[in-house]
Amino acid sequence: MCQFRNLSNLFWWVRRLRIDDITTVLHPAGVLLALSAWTAPAIAQDVDQPTSVIVVTGQGLGEDAATPAYDVHTIQRDDLTASASGRIEDVLSSVAGFQQYRRSDSRSSNPSNQGVTLRALGGNASSRAVVLLDGVPVTNPFFGYVPFSALVPDRLRAVRVTRGGGMGAFGQGAVSGTIELESAGPDEIGKGQILTLVDNRGETQSSFVVAPRLGDGFVVAGFQQDRGQGFWTTPEDQRVPASARARYDSWSAFVRAVAPLTSTVEVQASGLAYDDSRTLRFKGADSRSSGQQASLRLVGRGDWKFDAIAYVQAQDFSNVVISSTTYKETLNQKKTPTISGGGKLELRPPVGADHVLRLGADLRLIQGHLLEEPYSNGVPTAFRRGGGKQSDIGLYAQEDWTRGRWVFTAGARLDRWTIRDGFYRSTSTSGIVSQNDSYADRDGWSVNGRGGAVWNATSLVSVRVAGYTGLRVPTLNELYRPYVVFPTTTQANAALKPERLRGYEGGVDLHPAGWLDLTFTAFDNRLLDAIANVTIGTNLQQRQNVQAIHTRGIEAGGEARAGRLVLSGSLAFTDAKVEAQGSQSRLNGLRPAQVPRFAASGTVAWAPRDRWRLAATLQHTGMQYDDDLNTSKLPAATTLDLVAQVPIASPAKFPATLVLRAENVTDVQVETRNQSGSIDITTPRTLWAGLRISVR
User: Fold this and answer.
1) Are 527 and 129 in contact (CB under 8 A)?
2) Rounded distance, CA 317 to CA 336, Å?
3) pLDDT one-digit tens code per residue, 386-431
4) Which of 415, 230, 298, 269 is nearest to 39 (CA)?
């Protein structure tokens, strides 16, 4: 009876889950106490075991047995550190189906546009894929954008992209997939390295990383700064005296310490801080994003494996809007402070060599608001504030069963989400209230699942099938923050419903020879109540739920190796359509905004000797529309990038490598925005040269 009473109390507490009731989770002391309570039994068990060689990896528990059942692409360190731009978003663009809201990278895009998605499920700037750094969500929780400038490829060991509805930890939000970034350690970095580059416009990119071993553990710390005058994002025939280059100045710093607690338990502590300032299109149109985060992780690799994480994040965003007609300041989004935190606990009990059982819980808390001032003729006319709170607590379980040539997997996730204390207020400069809206609290339960199977028919052929569902709760930005990209104003919508995914896929992985790997996947995904920017008047849009975005397509990838020569590539062909009715019926059958039908990428890399790398990447993005009505086209574009890394001398004499990079070698004009003929373009031909000094 006592057990039933405890379960009843827990159910009662979860139903009334409120951010204010559990903010102690954000306190470091509370985090440490919670982790100690969660992991004490497992640690105590490990302490009693005989001592053995201690191996510290700095990673999580690794891939589970069911990974082959889903469409997974892994990018290794050699490819991460050899992109022409040195930016993680450009590395990810080599994965078929990966897409940002706009085609521009983090040098020339407004940070709030840096949402990422997979499988053509876009339509607005919020991320529909969950991005994790060492198991911690890094997406800005207010806007849904990814702080790409803070995620430096040189610091990473690998990136794993899983396409399709998400499950497991922090699965709420992963309606198109999950992108997992794993930090590198001394094995990959060595004792340290320095990189410095300059381009043909005088812009610089510089970084250093040190990775000393300390006893049985290690520390990795580093700093990177990118700065420059930027390139023109406005075509020459549309420039005016107020036009400006896309100036940028960003830095990020991180530290990560890993140490053993016992022979099978290690602790990982991480900190990250970043700041990014940009100017876009017009003089004075300045944006800035910044953030700090800290996390603590315990990983146990004994009989009872476990992975426990706690984290806290603080982020901010500001933006000045300049009129495209008067070239004066019309809106100052002064700040958008956001606090988030939470954690997860996952257990993998010893249930037999042929089984992997995952039992877990995760929690995420968010609180954020905006502060902005509209201007007229250089004078502020009002004072606006808006925002709210959100929470999500999830419970998940997954079982993977290997039986001969078959691997079966099935899992379920239960989420309890809340949206609370939403408001939007506007007052005149004299203090007179013109708008004072408070929105009703909302909450809900959601059950989602996924399952699949892999048949390893032979060592040369594997066949897989999978089905899944998913959930994404609208961001505070979508709910409460209107914005302007001249000449179009987009209104917020506090009544937005969560998005729900239904999807399935099938694929085949081929290894016809030791030098060749091929993979093909066909999928059908339907995102119900998809949130889109819907045109409701002349130069006026509103965020609304449409009936669905339905995507069907094919993804393919492959790699061929001939000695030191490697040819790799991927492509995605997607038929994406909006399903709409009623007042939105004119959208029915149209393609979602910013979604190409075809995208492909291919790289040929040659390493004639150790520490050498010569590579060329050809990337094609098909035509896409910039608006929901499919009236403004962004033409297809094909770009060529080149990279060369050539050692100057033997490592014993001088461990330096000459680094040469060339972006958009053929200087193709790639359009990123077209609103009523007002066009933005992205990176022109850019040539880089510099040195990398590595100490092993």
Assistant:
1) no
2) 5
3) 999 999 999 999 999 999 999 999 999 999 999 999 999 999 998 9
4) 298
| DSSP structure string for 168-184 | STT-TT-SSEEEEEEE-
C-beta of residue 673 within 8 angstroms of C-beta of residue 679: yes
**Residue 597, burial from CB neighbour count under 10 angstroms (0-12, 13-18, 19+):** middle
End-to-end CA distance of the chain: 61
Token readout for 239 is 């420039």
Q: Three-state DSSP class for 531?
A: strand
Task: State the pTM of this model.
Answer: 0.91
C-alpha to C-alpha distance for 579 and 595, rounded to whole angstroms = 15
The SS3 assignment for 486 reads: coil
* 221-246 confidence digits (pLDDT tens): 999 999 999 999 999 999 999 999 99
**CB neighbour list of residue 300: distance below 8 Å, 6 or more residues apart:** 39, 42, 43, 46, 264, 265, 306, 307
Q: What is the token pair recorded at 211?
A: 């990775």
Q: Which helix (H) or strand (E) holds 492?
A: none
| Residue 224 φ/ψ, nearest 5 degrees | -140, 140
Rounded Cα distance between 536 and 198, Å, is 46
In whole angstroms, what is the distance from residue 378 CA to residue 394 CA? 48
Phi, psi (degrees; rounded to nearest 5) at 298: -120, 130
Contact 132, 270 (CB under 8 A): no
Beta strand 129-133 pairing with 177-183? parallel
CA separation for the pair 511, 460 (Å, rounded): 5
310 conformational bin, left if phi > 0, alpha if psi -120 to 50, beta if neither: beta
pLDDT in tens, 661-679: 999 999 999 999 998 888 9
In a 3-state reduction of DSSP, which class is residue 359? strand
Write out the DSSP string of 589-600.
Answer: TPPPTT--SEEE
String of DSSP letters for 30-84? HHHHHHHHHHHHHHHHHHTSPP------SS-S---TTGGGSEEEEEEHHHHT--S
Residues 190, 209 contacting (CB under 8 angstroms):
no
Give the whole-angstrom CA distance, residue 565 versus residue 521.
26
What residue type is 543 in one-letter code?
Answer: R
Residue 399 C-beta-side C-alpha neighbours within 13 Å: 8
The dihedrals phi and psi of 6, each to the nearest 5 degrees, come to -65, -45
Rounded to whole angstroms, how far apart are CA atoms 587 and 29?
51
Token pair of 358 as six digits: 């995952």
Enumerate domains of the chain plus CATH numbers: 19-695 (2.40.170.20)
